[in-house]
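Q: How do we represent a protein-ligand complex in a form that can be generated token by token?
A: Start from the inputs.
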Amino acid sequence: MSAIERSLDGKRILLIIGGGIAAYKSLDLIRRLRERGASVRPVLTAAGKQFVTALSVASLAGASVHEDLFSLTEEADMGHIELSRAADLIVVAPATADLLARAANGLANDLASTLLLATDKKVLMAPAMNLRMWLHPATCRNVMQLQSDGVLFAGPADGEMACGEFGPGRMVEPIDIIEAIESAIGSDTAILLPGAPLAGRKIVITSGPTHEPIDPVRYIANRSSGRQGHAIAKAAMRAGAKVVLISGPVSISDPAGVETIHVETAQEMLEAVRAHLPADIYVGAAAVADWRVENAGEQKIKKSPSGGPLLQFSENPDILAHVAKAGKSRPALVVGFAAETQNVIAYAQDKLGRKKCDLIVANDVSAEMGVMGGTQNSVHLVSALGVESWDRLDKEEVARRLVTVFADLLEKGGR
Ligand code: C5P
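Then emit the structure tokens for the protein with cytidine-5'-monophosphate bound:
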């Protein structure tokens, strides 16, 4: 296993754990924060205690858990005002609808809400609730209020919820909260891979899905989370490269210190890529939609007794092939991804030739692998040199290793 970088070394996190089924993920969050060098002071709400115990929180945090607003021992030790300020960042995970509502309205009727009102530090919330609660106008109002008060948000994500429904409201994964924390306060931009192997190089990376509109409110998308592409952007930056990340719509944060351009459709992604060439390296990690809807409605398409709408599709531009065949402005190293559910290596070899790229990073995204949207990846590197298969690794570690491979290939003259 690889060593975790101490990207949050010396940072003090006050972690408020609210009452939601996602509270169990906060235990993992504590572990990951400490691995990265942060210290964690935990606060458990009364509802949070229904989901995780103070003992497990304290054991993982290596610090006692604060629970009461009116604890005389704590007030003698450290008052709630001091507690709220002796931190670099306050993280609320899970942030329940109730906690959001109280924070948005400045209530101070328990320790957690009092800390949020008394602090002069940044606050990051990772909401978790049923999708109807998340979509309720009251919660929307509260989130808008909190955002305009400067509160940062990580997620929520779309997905299957503990209650069995599917939609937005799921707490994002601990690794995504870590990303958001690093963006908010991290010092990770300063950490370079040994020897800064990409110093002086420019790399353009696409990441995430594209959304292809059906009408102004509906779109076609895919399950790409953007995690692998974003991790490569971060690793390349740490390796000293100038990085431009072109991201489709994702629920993860922009990597701290990386120039990130947000796009929705494949055509917008192509325009953004074109605008940022030339570069030394191009990495197409985005899951670009193959088709767009030719007859997308200008207004919301209404239900009709004669059946559903007939959508006509036209093919999207192949951004990777476009870059690889860009003549003089072709980057020295063009890298594609191939997400397949079968015949992974054979399809990747075919893509390598057809799209004229130098390296294909192929992975199996069949449902049982849990790669799409997950935090791990097991990849095969397919190039003119042959096939190299790596064990299953965290996407961050895959990214770090890929960056070293890119540096080696560039050294050898790219193609
Ligand atoms: O979808 P496909 O398997 O062909 O994708 C392989 C590679 O091609 C990926 O790197 C993806 O980013 C890229 N691609 C692209 N534009 C498309 C389709 C795929 O750049 N329209």
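The chain has 14 helices and 21 strands. Residues 206, 266, 284, 286, 288, 290, 316, 318-320, 336-338, 351 surround cytidine-5'-monophosphate (CB under 6 Å).
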